[in-house]
Amino acid sequence: MSPQPDTKVRYRFEAGPGDAGIRLDRWLATHIPDVSRARIQALIKQGSVESDVTIKDAKTAVKSGATYFVTLPEAEPSHIAAQPIDLTIVYEDKDLIVIDKPPGLVVHPAAGHADGTLVNALVAHCGDSLSGIGGIKRPGIVHRLDKDTSGILVVAKNDAAHQSLAEQFKSHGQDGRLHRAYLALAWGVPVRPKGVIDVPLSRSTSNRTKISVERGDSGRHAVTHYEVLEAFEDGKGVPCASLIRLVLETGRTHQIRVHLAHIRHPILGDSVYGTGFKTASARLTPAAEAAVNGLRRQALHAKDLSFEHPRTGKIMNFSSDLPDDIASVLAALRKSAPVKKPTEKVRAPRSPKR
After folding, report:
1. pLDDT per position as a tens digit, 163-172
2. pLDDT, tens digit, 9 for 90 and up, residues 266-317
3. Distance of alpha carbon 302 from alpha carbon 98, whole angstroms
4. Which residues are tagged catalytic?
5. Span 179-340: which CATH code?
6. What angle do CA 43, 47, 50 make, to 5 degrees?
């Protein structure tokens, strides 16, 4: 049998006087920029870091003048199939890729969607530029959009970028690095042009595919900030729909959809959380009604995303125009229904008949 090629990479680092006393995992993380500190801790634990002896404790203090060797195995191939799926790539470098996700595309393989996902497409597109997330050549998903939600999404291409972006999304902008905003077309018009929806959420006990508002303190903390940008009335002067900008303070599953439904302004086209408003389109003009009924998904779009680049520290800003299906509904509403300034006091919508 012919010898197999050595697929491991061996790093050699010498510690200077100023390095003495620093935790070994922290020190090594500054010298191998594409590998996260968590990954280095795992390498130390498995015996891949040596000096005079093999080191197994990540808390070991660096010694001045000592030489450290790190053996980094090549990232293992992902079990996820590579599939050539067309993507709208907004930006890409060796650390990350920003995608303008179309509606209908699932982000990650899961039950019912074993392939044909964004991850399958990224495995094919990125190829060898995926240096490994946790030792596996795969894209690093740090946030997700629902299958039928469109818009901007960022994915990490290496371990260190994944850790940095994950930390930013976990803080949800509270440390000033991350900002994301959505646009939604909703039924009715909130009485207040600006507001905060602070209602805990949990998995529904009657339907595990749905999220519900949790009464009491047992739900997960969820906060959504909203601002009404445009308000539309029907021919009788009754508020019928609105264009709303939403900023997340937390990132729970279906958060925007559930929060807007909770305040009785569900998103147009939402077949899960807006079923009680199915007949509301009858109040619109025929053209607007046809546009709304033509929606095949919730009218929710991830419009803006800003974050700190994991390597350079530069703030990256990305924005996506409304896709054609939502834009056509908005145009129909603007054409057929009067537009009120969001600062004007508007009436709450009528509750749909049960």
Report:
1. 899 989 988 7
2. 999 999 998 878 778 888 888 888 999 899 999 999 999 999 999 999 999 9
3. 12
4. 146
5. 3.30.2350.10
6. 100
